[in-house]
Amino acid sequence: GGPRRLLLISNSTLHGGGYLGHCQQHIQSFLGQKVKRVLFIPYALHDRDAYARTAREKFESLGYGLDSIHESCDPVEAIRKSEAIFIGGGNTFRLLKALYDNSLIHEIRKRVLEDGIPYMGSSAGTNVATISINTTNDMPIVYPPSLKALGLVPFNINPHYLDPDNKSTHMGETREERIRQYHEEPNTPPVLGLREGTMLLVEGDKATLQGVTGARLFLRGKKPTEHEPGTDFSFLLTDSKPLNP
Known about the structure:
Elements: E1 5-9, H1 24-31, E2 37-41, H2 48-61, E3 65-68, H3 75-81, E4 85-87, H4 92-101, H5 105-114, E5 119-122, H6 124-127, E6 156-158, H7 175-183, E7 191-194, E8 198-203, E9 206-211, E10 215-218, E11 225-227, H8 235-239
Parallel strand pairs: 1-5, 2-3, 2-4, 4-5, 6-7
Antiparallel strand pairs: 1-8, 7-10, 8-9, 10-11
């Protein structure tokens, strides 16, 4: 085993680029030379075959083989044998329900937290790496047995974080207001708002913001704070209370 290694990406595609194009160098340096094959979990989208084709094409272009878990007759065994796990984006509720339905929550936690294999998530795949999916932007199109997620980090993330547009006439709640409503509930963990083009690299007890756009951190009862790429977020790994699903 080894320390946990996570690459939690806000989004799979950035305007003007292809699938995972904006973070492919981060992916290569994260997976390195040792990993030969990546286990892809396409459960967040309905058309798993098409999703796996897109992911396979990208990872093969980076020099990695890719197996999709939906093609395996035994998903649990696929997790146990995996060298690295990548969970892609889509609908977070659909994704989490499928992880529960296939009895994968415990297995993924064990592989990542005890065996130290690399875990990558983008968007919904980043949401499920956290304590819960309470701060996803997605619609609850299906009903997972719990909103508790993998708990690989002891806080929550809001991918695709959007700043309020002062020129907009839209009167709906801003993302910031929605996160504040979450924090009105007792014992709610920090929420890291990751803008598109940003990712969090976790290595053991060290967490670093990477990418181009920065992040906004929400702590219950405190004013949100703004953070540039390169910020050390390691305190989020120790100060928050871990949650065992």
